[in-house]
Design goal:
This protein is of the alpha/beta class. Helices cover about 40% and strands about 15% of the residues. The strands form three sheets. Strands 5-7-6-8 form a four-stranded mixed β-sheet. The chain has a two-stranded antiparallel ribbon with strand order 1-2. Pfam families: IspD (PF01128).
Length: about 220
Amino acid sequence: MGNADKPKQFLTVGEKPVIIHTIEKFIINSHFIEIVVLVPKSWLAYTKDIIRKYIRQHEKIVVVEGGTTRNETIMNAIQYIEDCGRLTEDTIIVTHDSVRPFVTYRIIEENIKFARNFGACDTVIPASDTIVESRDGSFISNIPEREKMFQGQTPQSFKAKHLRKIYQSLTDAERAILTDACKIYVLKNEPVYLVEGEVSNIKITYPHDLRVAEAILGGNQTC
């Protein structure tokens, strides 16, 4: 995000930090017992402050220290749930990028439904461009069939206890190649159901994405 002086989830879009827009999408869903926000240790106090400032129902939100990787952060969330005495075989954890503020109610509902039904699910959209594989970074190695290619989004949702069990079964080499939580299941040949995402469910990563997010918010306000 260029020379931003803070993590991108704390940048302002539509007069509120990105992370606040994201939390608001989950706080209105009655299925959730609690919203667990995981952040670096140095940003714990700041995160708690902005949540109290912008969100009225902040009693339903807890801020917890994350890990050094995405999956360690998810494991910290599961440990928190267990410490609270709420981790059972049926506990569902819906994991989401704080910088995807345009996730829809429908996507969240379907993540909960299919995580319950299948144990794990991932939000995806069909690849609109041809995907080119290059093993050396210089020449094309393969061009997969586009009809079989999808672009991953979030949420990714799981039965939390089983997710932790198979994560703990991974070797160090397997953990080293993880890109997201769903790959844990792929490595162990466990099924992951596909939930249809939305093109608008963008991840704010670059300065251009901030401008797109402002445009989306402006369009929503006009409607």
